[in-house]
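Schema walkthrough. Field components (list of strings):
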Amino acid sequence: MSKNYAVVGATGAVGVEILKVLENRNVDVGQLKLLASPRSAGKTMTFRGKEYTVEALSEDSFHDVQVALFSAGGSISKQYGPVAVSSGCVVVDNSSAFRMDPEVPLVVPEINPEAVKLHKGIIANPNCSTIILLMAVYPIYKLYGVKKIIVSTYQAASGAGAAAMQELEDQAKAHLAGTEVPTNILPHQLAFNVFSHNSSMDPESGYNQEEVKMVKETHKILGDANIAIAPTCVRVSTFRAHAESIHLELREKGDVEKMREALAAFPGVKVLDNRQANRFPMPLEVSGKDDVYVGRVRMDYDDQSGTNVQLFVVGDQLLKGAALNAVQIAELL
Ligand code: A2P
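Field assembly_structure (string):
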């Protein structure tokens, strides 16, 4: 039976992708409500060839809606998520507002789909860097166990929203034209630059919020707090796919060919690991793709123990890192 859907943040970078994913996956959508800020009220958007008018989000938005996909930031989720639940909706929330709440399942459908059953109205979609990391790590974790993860991210502008993607484009043009480079959304010039992730930094630990999310969310999703995780999160001047360089310390000796086979067999993962042609995953090629791409599967150069492996991973932040994962959760309901 079809369900009525609401997309909160429908005009945003993730919201637009949610509509495309619902369309492409033939999700049985009955009525559809597109919700955003009052700035967007009255704007029209197309879904399955039909025009819909965007409405301003309010406490009355959720009558007769069964599934609400939220992607309008943490404060909107905190304020309106419980309102949607009390109107009878199941909320799939893309923000970090409820992820670490013990009552809220945090789900990557290929990894812990069973957690969805425990929901009490809200299911959280994990952080994009965490989803992309775990899609590559989980098949290896199942094979050999993992003691430690050292990960460095190369994160696209899309994670900071549609306005940040536009600003990256404007910055590139301004930089090349020799005019003043705008930094209204991003804290620094991202075009032709790399900077430490723009989430807030804890001066005591030296870790930013994005890094802390990768640690805590990995422990929650895998139900394994024994994995040591050392992340470094960085923004690079790409538009929408995140890359990650990952080092794993395995619990047992690993075999590169077996790991490649396990990755290739895992739903939602593709192996692109052509050493002869020097062809590995790239953000430009992975943008717009559902799968997370893994390459450069290799043992640590100097390690004699056979338990240290390295990977290079790229996933579309807006799709598997956000919209696709959220719609897959809705499909599980
Ligand atoms: P709007 O386009 O009207 O500003 P992004 O992550 O790309 O920045 O998108 C954020 C999304 O959240 C947009 O759809 C945006 O709508 C929406 N949003 C921002 N503030 C509010 C608000 N106060 N109420 C409802 N939606 C909001």
